[in-house]
């Protein structure tokens, strides 16, 4: 049974781009998953994902051992920065390895 299925499909100019139930006028959306995850990881992930800037909307939850972080922001850089902070903090807890960015994120 899938933990997360995202079927978002939006086109420019659609009501979903501006609506409160959609992208709220933000240009970028991202989903970050961590598995396996525990309750211990939830609060640090929330603090890091939500960040200190008020110019993004964030949600973090733990579902059946999977941590889900979602971000709506002005641009992809803001989304990536939040996910990088979560990854750097949680990778040592998940994999017992240093929290460095994956090489693929440099492309």
Description:
The chain is α+β, with helices and mostly antiparallel strands. 30% of the residues lie in helices and 21% in strands. The chain contains two helices and three strands; from the N terminus they run βαββα. It has a three-stranded antiparallel beta sheet with strand order 1-3-2, covered by helices on one side. Strand 2 (56-63) and strand 3 (66-73) form a beta hairpin. 18% of the residues are buried.
In terms of DSSP E residues, the strand content is 15-25%
Indicate the radius of gyration in whole angstroms. Answer: 14 Å
Distance between the termini: 32 Å
Query: Strands across the major sheet, in which order?
Result: 1-3-2
Give the helices and strands as they follow along the chain: EHEEH
Quick one: overall form? globular
Q: Which blocks of ≥5 consecutive residues have pLDDT under 50? A: none
Helical content band? 25-40%
Mean pLDDT over the full residue set: 88
Based on helices, strands and strand pairing, what is the structural class?
A: alpha+beta
**Main pleated sheet:** 3 strands, antiparallel
- Please count the helical segments: 2
Number of strands: 3
Short description:
The chain has helices at 39-50, 76-95; strands spanning 28-34, 56-63, 66-73. It is of the alpha+beta class and 107 residues long.
């Amino acid at each position: 049974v899938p933990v997360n299925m995202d079927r978002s499909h939006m086109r420019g100019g659609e009501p979903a781009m501006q609506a409160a139930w959609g992208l709220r006028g933000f240009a970028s959306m991202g989903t970050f998953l961590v598995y396996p995850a525990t309750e211990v990881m939830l609060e640090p992930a929330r603090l890091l994902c939500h960040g200190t800037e008020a110019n993004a909307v964030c949600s973090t939850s733990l579902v059946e051992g999977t941590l889900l972080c979602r971000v709506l922001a002005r641009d992809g850089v803001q989304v990536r920065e939040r996910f990088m902070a979560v990854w750097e903090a949680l990778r040592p807890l998940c994999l017992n390895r240093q929290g460095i960015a994956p090489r693929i994120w440099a492309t």
